[in-house]
């Protein structure tokens, strides 16, 4: 029996590398996946690949920073049998590689504002439907982490810390209604680094060098763990983080 049979999952940023991997894993485990994002053509391609492999997927252009668009899309999915899983994986428009003392205020604060705004909107939209049904899972990605010494990451870590504060508060408020909130942490996924990025090799070596298993997490690893955490087999997991870092992150 598949882990997510009969469940509806919304994946925001479903055309991205992580989003498409998670959506594919959800579909492989039996979920109907509703891909949401701003790139309609790319979303359609991911949805078609999922359907070609025997899964169920639909795509919709949704700006996950737009309150009305998020609410209307969530309402439409809920009308199709409810929302069981919500996972926001849109990019945060962060600037990396620039030291903080050389960074503009706009570049520093953009990922913080973007992350907080979009996750609040999507989590709230899902939670309103989940609490009414008494069940559901809201997943986050990133998590608290120690400062990165090898590479300047701008405001990205601040954004992750803000999201963890949000996730903890949601866990406390939504738990009594049967809704779980969990964060997946990876320590970095080499596959997500653009092939033409000048510092790719250095970052890949840094990520792998910190692991205990001698390899970094893959996109497939993240998708598989996300599917498990979203399933009823993980029903006791909430207000927590799941370490998918191959030992790079020590809890």
TrEMBL record:
It holds the Pfam family adh_short_C2. Keywords: Oxidoreductase. This is SDR family oxidoreductase. The lineage of its organism: Bacteria, Bacillati, Actinomycetota, Actinomycetes, Pseudonocardiales. It comes from the Bacteria. Belongs to the short-chain dehydrogenases/reductases (SDR) family. InterPro entries: NAD(P)-bd_dom_sf, SDR_fam.
């Amino acid at each position: 029996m598949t882990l997510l049979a009969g469940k509806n999952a919304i994946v925001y940023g479903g055309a991205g590398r992580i989003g498409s991997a998670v959506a594919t894993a959800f579909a492989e485990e039996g979920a109907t996946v509703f891909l949401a994002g701003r790139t309609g053509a790319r979303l359609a391609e991911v949805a078609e690949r999922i359907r070609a492999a025997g899964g169920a997927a639909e795509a919709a252009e949704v700006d996950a920073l737009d309150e009305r668009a998020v609410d209307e899309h969530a309402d439409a999915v809920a009308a199709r049998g409810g929302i069981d899983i919500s996972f926001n994986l849109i990019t945060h428009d962060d600037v990396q590689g620039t030291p903080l003392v050389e960074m503009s205020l706009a570049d520093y604060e953009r990922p913080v504002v973007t992350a907080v705004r979009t996750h609040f909107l999507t989590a709230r939209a899902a939670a309103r439907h989940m609490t009414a049904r008494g069940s559901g899972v809201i997943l986050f990605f990133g998590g608290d982490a120690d400062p990165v010494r090898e590479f300047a990451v701008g405001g990205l870590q601040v954004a992750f810390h803000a999201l963890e504060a949000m996730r903890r508060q949601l866990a406390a408020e939504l738990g009594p209604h049967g809704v779980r909130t969990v964060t997946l942490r990876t320590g970095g996924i080499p596959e997500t680094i653009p092939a033409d990025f000048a510092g790719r090799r250095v970052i890949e070596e840094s990520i792998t060098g910190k692991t205990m298993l001698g390899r970094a997490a893959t996109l497939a690893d993240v998708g598989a763990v996300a599917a498990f955490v979203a399933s009823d087999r993980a029903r006791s997991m909430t207000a927590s983080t799941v370490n998918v870092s191959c030992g790079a992150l020590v809890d």
